[in-house]
């Protein structure tokens, strides 16, 4: 194995994470997350799949132009057009990588690629060489390696390394592996491939059986020196290995792992909250490391033990992963410069003074409603402001909702559709139902409501509520997110944002279903 003095953290939140149904992010949102990942000291940021759409290309390029400390990577199928497009997108980066892949399992080669094994090897070699003509840092992935034959893996990996691949990724694409078996696969590959010492071996595990982190750690114990993961375990289907769990497992169990990451763990919780806010995927309270209950103790025995000696029931310190950052940062008397400075510290930067002024106005209005303004509130203000700046067919002007015991709830809304104001009203089983029915009476979207979720951004009864609305139409799924101290207004914002997203078109190409 090529020498690596630390465990490389390859974050794919912006690529694989975005493949979660409804988790599509725009360029500005991707750039905010990329800056948070850079602050976290992530080694490699997989910024996207450049050929998937013009939007993906623009986002990858913007990240390449702005990120200085992390390597910026773009995914590419083993096709010349993919590789050349990826190279063009990452060209501005100070450190760049092309990540090319092809399927290697019998089921994928036969039914998806419709290629013979010899053809697959030939195409893999050609792709790696093409990528090396653009950049020195090339990663090659054996898609569905978890169900591939070991002898064929050895053959194609040896050829890829000879062709110039510096990193070899072994993905458990469908989450099929079991830790002991997966770790043994990594050990055998490292022992059997003659030129294995010329590349860093990586793993990319999916969580279909809830084993993504366990499989990744098993691979590390057997010699893998890069782990591909996402913030909050975001990703298609059941998700990917969670970055925060990988990092803290290796950091906490140094008695078993003889290697550590470069991650600045104090930025883990802020990064988690940013990704949750932007994607609209709330973090479950009992989620390891970043869940609200991760360091909470209700049992009397546990509370007594922690008070006497923290290590009795805590194996990590909450402040080491960023929980201490959940503190008051600004108040109603804070000025515009203090507001701008704190936003920059959170990795939030507006492109125009007009956007900053709009956000500051929202901050002052919120400060009049709630005394304590937290970082999470600022993240929500920024997201709302950026959403408002983007053109959409639909907009909320004002609304009035009546909910009274013994009376059918009614919603009265004024909305804009293509710039023209319309007033509508409807009744429903509750105020949210009435609000959504009023909106639909005007737009008649034909969408199916798949998810309605409410999450408090901070603690207290004056907290902003964050609402996620998931809509589906014609097989396309989008998430709309809205926040407000009034949960009904937040619900209307979320529903309207989802409508704007689903009416905008621009469906992304999915890298694993595209024909090779």
UniProtKB/TrEMBL annotation:
GO terms for biological process: L-leucine biosynthetic process. Its cofactor is Mn(2+). Mn(2+) binds at residues 16, 204, 206, 240. Keywords: Amino-acid biosynthesis, Branched-chain amino acid biosynthesis, Cytoplasm, Leucine biosynthesis, Manganese, Metal-binding, Transferase. The keyword Cytoplasm applies. It comes from the Bacteria. InterPro entries: 2-IPM_HCS-like, 2-isopropylmalate_synth_dimer, AIPM/Hcit_synth_CS, Aldolase_TIM, LeuA/HCS_post-cat, LeuA_allosteric_dom_sf, LeuA_bact_synth, PYR_CT. Pathway: Amino-acid biosynthesis; L-leucine biosynthesis; L-leucine from 3-methyl-2-oxobutanoate: step 1/4. It catalyses: 3-methyl-2-oxobutanoate + acetyl-CoA + H2O = (2S)-2-isopropylmalate + CoA + H(+). Residues 395-516 are annotated as: Regulatory domain. The keyword Repeat does not apply. Gene3D superfamilies: 1.10.238.260, 3.30.160.270, Aldolase class I (3.20.20.70). GO terms for cellular component: cytosol. Its EC number is 2.3.3.13. GO terms for molecular function: 2-isopropylmalate synthase activity; acetyl-CoA C-acetyltransferase activity; manganese ion binding. Catalyzes the condensation of the acetyl group of acetyl-CoA with 3-methyl-2-oxobutanoate (2-ketoisovalerate) to form 3-carboxy-3-hydroxy-4-methylpentanoate (2-isopropylmalate). Homodimer. Belongs to the alpha-IPM synthase/homocitrate synthase family. LeuA type 1 subfamily. This is 2-isopropylmalate synthase. The gene is leuA.
């Amino acid at each position: 194995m090529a020498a690596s003095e630390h465990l490389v953290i390859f974050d794919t939140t912006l690529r694989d994470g975005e493949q979660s149904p409804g988790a599509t992010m725009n360029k500005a949102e991707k750039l905010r997350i990329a800056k948070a990942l850079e602050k976290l000291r992530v080694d490699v940021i997989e910024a996207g799949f450049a050929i998937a759409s013009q939007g993906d290309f623009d986002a990858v390029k913007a990240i390449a132009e702005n990120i200085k400390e992390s390597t910026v990577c773009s995914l590419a199928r083993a096709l010349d057009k993919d590789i050349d497009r990826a190279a063009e997108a990452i060209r501005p980066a100070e450190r760049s990588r092309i990540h090319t892949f092809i399927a290697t399992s019998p089921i994928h080669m036969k039914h998806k690629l419709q290629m013979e094994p010899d053809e697959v090897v030939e195409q893999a070699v050609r792709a790696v060489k093409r990528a090396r003509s653009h950049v020195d840092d090339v990663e090659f992935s054996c898609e569905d390696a978890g169900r591939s034959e070991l002898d064929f893996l050895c053959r194609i990996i040896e050829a890829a390394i000879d062709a110039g691949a510096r990193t070899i990724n072994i993905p458990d694409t469908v989450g099929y592996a079991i830790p002991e078996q997966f770790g043994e696969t990594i050990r055998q590959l490292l022992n059997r491939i003659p030129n294995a010492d010329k590349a860093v071996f990586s793993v990319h595990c999916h969580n279909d059986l809830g084993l993504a982190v366990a499989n990744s750690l098993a691979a590390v114990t057997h010699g893998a020196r890069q782990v591909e993961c996402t913030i909050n375990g975001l990703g298609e289907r059941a998700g990917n290995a969670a970055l925060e769990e990988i990092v803290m497992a290796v950091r906490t169990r140094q008695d078993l792992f003889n290697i550590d990451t470069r991650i600045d763990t104090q930025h883990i919780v802020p990064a988690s909250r940013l990704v949750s806010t932007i994607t609209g995927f709330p973090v479950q309270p009992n989620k390891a490391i970043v869940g609200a209950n991760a360091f909470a103790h209700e049992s009397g025995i546990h509370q007594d033990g922690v008070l006497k000696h923290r290590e009795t029931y805590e194996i990590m310190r909450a402040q080491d992963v960023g929980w201490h950052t959940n503190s008051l940062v600004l108040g109603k008397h804070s000025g515009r410069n203090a507001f701008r400075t704190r936003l920059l510290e959170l990795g939030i930067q507006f492109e125009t003074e007009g956007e900053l002024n709009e956000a500051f106005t929202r901050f002052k209005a919120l400060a009049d409603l709630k005394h304590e303004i937290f970082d999470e509130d600022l993240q929500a203000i920024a997201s709302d402001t950026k959403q408002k700046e983007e053109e959409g067919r639909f907009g909320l002007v004002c609304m009035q909702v009546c909910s009274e015991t013994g009376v059918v709830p009614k919603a009265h809304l004024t909305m804009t559709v293509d710039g023209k104001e319309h007033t509508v009203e409807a009744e429903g089983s509750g105020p949210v139902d009435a609000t959504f029915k009023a909106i639909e009476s005007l737009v008649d979207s034909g969408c199916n409501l798949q998810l309605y979720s409410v999450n408090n951004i901070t603690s207290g009864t004056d907290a902003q509520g964050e609402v996620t609305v998931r809509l589906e139409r014609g097989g396309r799924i989008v998430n709309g997110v809205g926040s407000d101290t009034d949960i009904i207004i937040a619900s209307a914002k979320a529903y309207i944002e989802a409508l704007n997203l689903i009416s905008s078109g621009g469906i992304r190409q999915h890298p694993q279903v595209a024909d090779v």
